[in-house]
Amino acid sequence: MLSLTEENYLKAIYHLSDGGNRSVLTNELAEAMNTKAASVTDMVKKLSAKAVISHEKYYGVNVTSKGKSEALMVIRKHRLWETFLVQKLGFAWDEVHEVAEQLEHINSARLIEKLDEFLGYPKVDPHGDPIPDNKGKLKILPQIAIDQLNIGYQGKIAAVKDSDSNLLKYLDKIEARPGTKIKILGKEDYDGSMEILIADHRIFISKEVSQNILVIE
Amino acid sequence: MLSLTEENYLKAIYHLSDGGNRSVLTNELAEAMNTKAASVTDMVKKLSAKAVISHEKYYGVNVTSKGKSEALMVIRKHRLWETFLVQKLGFAWDEVHEVAEQLEHINSARLIEKLDEFLGYPKVDPHGDPIPDNKGKLKILPQIAIDQLNIGYQGKIAAVKDSDSNLLKYLDKIEARPGTKIKILGKEDYDGSMEILIADHRIFISKEVSQNILVIE
DNA sequence: GTAAAAATTTAGATTAGTCTAAAAAAATAT
DNA sequence: ATATTTTTTTAGACTAATCTAAATTTTTAC
């Protein structure tokens, strides 16, 4: 049983480690958690004692397989709640994160199963991120940012990165949402900006924006 | 801003004081909160400092008007979530309390307004308890338990007391739900048991059960 | 109206999560 | 390869919420 704080640390470790593919350093985690390195060291000891991460002193932490599945359960809850907030309550895209951060810690297996059913067993959340199933399995979709694509590419937006609420507002405004048709019309070598066709209207976007729009690879 | 624990204490004080109509003693509160009197005394100091209750040493606590409206907001959230769990997710009556106890502490005014709208602005929760409005106003319904009624009374169940999950299971089984028609057929002087007609079928209930079924007075 | 019982508060300690400052280890730079 | 810088850990302290045991106040009982 993890406390709310422990769950948040574990989730951050999971994300920073890219789903368990690399180890996470104390300072990285301190920055992500908006706290101090000393606090991280303390918490790392607690999480190690609970066997959800392993810690090699001075060299960072890794999530264990137990930790991975616990993290995925929290992520499952987060993404299901985000889907609920957008699809059922009519929240905008960029408004859901903070609330979902709270809701993800509600403890009731039955609630999550019922919610999943109520939402029609969605596979992805409103940003296009995959929702882990009730066994803690995550289907990783092979995605690529559109700044990597060539002129002439046509397809559908699969997901957008949801790191920043202002970015999300902008993406919503230009209708860059999962499922929307997209075509690469032009690319400027100098600054990497692009001209694209989204939902049948032409628009110029900066390289930074293009790095946050993903399609299936 | 109250902590989760402070919210729970305040809610308990509100309920024990009958919505602020009498003062609450330390031991009462300790029993309700499943804690020790000494812990209550400590918490009472914190809540007094936050001006949601007033405390006269050795004579108990009273909710202030600020405390009353804060308690009602928590109750509003609790009852809206219970309504959601039953009406939208298909939870049974007796399963909702524990989950709603967690959900009531989610902090987002927008969420509650959206949820209220999504549910169609319900006036009462699944047990028939009134839902405070977004101004923190509670419409108190004049209710009376059916053990107080005379033979021949006919009406509709307005609410049931939701103190005990086993009672709720039983009430659900006999279809004693808010809105159901009810008629008093007979009353045994010896033990106070009753024969009643609920949703057109006759049933005998004990005095204890009859004290938990309420109609509009 | 005082003595015993019950209720409440205070005192001092504990745990979770956090902090600052100091110590220790690792990385780096010449 | 040694000194400096950076990163991490340890040590010691703080707050919130809790506890036990002791002290205090109120109530009750004769």
| SS field, number of helical segments of chain A | 8
Q: Round the Cα radius of gyration of chain A to an integer and report it.
A: 19 Å
Q: CATH homologous superfamily of the domain at 143-216 in chain A - what is it?
A: Ferrous iron transport protein A (FeoA)
CATH architecture type of the domain at 143-216 in chain A: Roll
The first-to-last residue Cα distance of chain A is 38 Å
- Global morphology of chain A: globular
- Largest protein interface, residues of each chain: A-B, 19 and 19 residues
Query: How many runs of DSSP E, i.e. beta strands of chain A?
Result: 8
Largest sheet: spatial strand order of chain A = 3-8-4-5-6-7
Features:
8 helices; six-stranded antiparallel sheet; Arc Repressor Mutant, subunit A; alpha+beta; DNA-binding; globular; homodimer; SH3 type barrels; 217 residues
